[in-house]
Please model this.
Amino acid sequence: MDSISWIDQTRTQVNQLISISFVVTTSDSVTVHSGLTTLSILGAIDKHQNLTDVGRKMAVLPLDPKFSRAVLASGELRCSKEVVDLVSMLSTSSRLFLGIPNDDPSSVGPREKFKDPSGDHCTILNAFRAYQEVSSSGNSGGAKNWCARNFLNERALSEAMEIRRQLKGICKRIGVDTNLSCGGQVQPILRCLVLGLAQNAAFIQPNGLYKQVMGPSVSCVFGLAESAHLSSGYEDTSRFSSYPSTSLSNYL
Model:
């Protein structure tokens, strides 16, 4: 069971679930405590495992808790327009970037225009923003052809547009203004991601490896955007060098 379910369970005394030892198996118990740890890190529950004001707003958003937290932070950091777009894209059921033929040099150029030096998240945001401009013309055939030329998954982009529409309505109900934009600034967006993806963050070590901030994992490819990289299918080895300057301390 994911953390979203545990936000709802917390409303009805989650401690009671943990105390029923004859029902909860060992694996269930680990899942429960893992979910509670995540919610505590995100500020959704307090030390007594009661739902906080942040947690109540997170529960309203139909998102993975880490994305809900990022959306709430975006209102405070005045970059909700960008973060809602990005979260919508990351919440789709299929990958954004399609595979490109290795033997076709002409296929590399179109994708390069979306690439952002700050990492995969802003690259995804750039692609989604470009699709919004193309689709705003109302020509579905034109948008489809544009996606094909740029090796982008039209289904994922179309799904993200619908998720975005729904999120904007829900954000309005909980007091998050989705029209706030940070313009060309990247740092506010990254700060929101750090708040939501704190468990995915890592510090670069003297030997060039990344060590997970929370947990013992060490990897040469682990960085702030690794989870999005895997789901997006964006194949770019630049992430090996992108994150030394993107340390957690810069955005907390």
About this structure: Strands lie at 202-204, 210-212, 218-219. The first strand starts at residue 202 and ends at 204. The chain has two domains: 3-60, 65-195.
